Amino acid sequence: MLSSTRRRPLARASVVAGLALATVLSACSSGQEAGSGGGSGGGSDDGALRIAYIQKQGDQQYFVDQAQGAQEAADELGVELDVVDVGTDANKAISAIDTEVARGVDGIIIVVPDQQIGPTVAQAATNAGVPLLASDDSIEDGSGNAVPFVGFNGTQMGEAVGEEAARLFTESGWNAADTRVISAYKQDLSVCADRVQGARSTFEANGGGEVEVIDVGTDNSATGAQDEAGAVITANPGVKHWIVWGCNDENVDGVVTALQNSGVSPDDINGVGLGAYLACKPWAAGEATGMRSALFISGAEVGRTAVEEMVQALQDGEDLPAETFANTEIVTADNYEDAGVVCT
């Protein structure tokens, strides 16, 4: 388990960013037009910097928290912030880039709905002379260079989940023969693959090697995970005990809900969430739940840090750091409040 400090610092990488932005940053910081090819830059009429934060799935609690953290940082720094929710629509994300460039933003932060649009959005930002920062989901430009990134190390997150799942399995004393793991995630998203692969390898290395793992493809929503899990539960009537992990809290919450709705006792479920923003709800309500623990990740910290990194680059004429990672920690019903998890 990592440190349980309430505000977890983010470690900044010093590697030079993949996009060559240094030539446009000084112009952006002064509020002048940056670059060529139609980019306007310039921020707002009063000279304040303007940044766009384009998000996917803005109604999910993690991204709600992220937008709030970003706005708090923008207010503290005297920056104007446009938060744009594009849902899961990749075309809307591409259009949002054009719209924000036309509005004269000085920098763009984006959580892409689909990593395949990375080259398109990177090229649009480069053409406009506007620095681009990827949040949460990494992306590459058309040459395969990574766009500067703020978020989490997916493999390390998964390893923490897998270690916790192995601990719970060992302490439960369950027989591997009548136990199954449901690993639920959006299978075409690389960050999800990193997380669940990290969980599986660490779980197997720490005593879970004989437990069968069932991969379940979802849309990363709680409802989607619940729907997809139903067929797996029906197809395994002899299973007595279930271990659940996934790409995010939604996946784990959905599968745990499906198991409990099918008659599986919470005592026979070891769910390890990823996010803690949904995992904490039954804990706060004092309800019996198969959600045993969760890896706490703070969307607010990522949003805040993304804005801070962008503003520093614009004001100081620096390259954006190639990678900025947030720390994480396992929380339970006993310590989630002390760790800073806010249940809404």
Automatic annotation (TrEMBL):
Major subcellular location class: other
GO terms, biological process: L-arabinose transmembrane transport
Keyword Amino-acid biosynthesis: no
One Pfam family per UniProt: Peripla_BP_4
Signal sequence region: 1-22
Localization (cell): Cell envelope
Record domain Periplasmic binding protein: where: 51-318
GO function term, MF aspect, one: carbohydrate binding
Keywords: Signal
Any one annotated GO CC term: outer membrane-bounded periplasmic space
Gene3D superfamilies recorded: 3.40.50.2300
SUPFAM superfamilies per record: Periplasmic binding protein-like I (SSF53822)
Highest rank taxon of the organism: Bacteria
PROSITE patterns to which the protein is assigned, alphabetical: PROKAR_LIPOPROTEIN
Protein name, per record: L-arabinose transport system substrate-binding protein
Organism of this sequence: Geodermatophilus tzadiensis
